[in-house]
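User: Just a sanity check before I run the rest of the batch. Below are the structure tokens for the first item. I only need the designed sequence back.
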């Protein structure tokens, strides 16, 4: 039963981060953050991926070389 104490729970967290750009709408900001989140999950989860800066966005979609770090 529960007399053995609490059991460990495995938790994974992936995050996508985007910085506000001049001219952004709430939708465009969330779209970039969502693309970064999708990439974090593709790269193995437990990661934070930062959307690329404005000058790196060539319209190629999520194939950009945005940075990621393992949390």
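Assistant: Here's the designed sequence for the first item:
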């Amino acid at each position: 039963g529960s007399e053995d104490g609490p059991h460990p729970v495995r938790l994974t967290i992936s995050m996508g981060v985007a910085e506000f750009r001049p001219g952004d709408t709430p939708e465009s900001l969330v779209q970039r953050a969502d693309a970064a989140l999708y990439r974090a999950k593709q790269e193995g989860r437990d990661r934070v991926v930062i959307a690329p800066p404005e000058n790196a966005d060539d319209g190629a979609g999520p194939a950009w070389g945005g940075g990621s770090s393992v949390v």
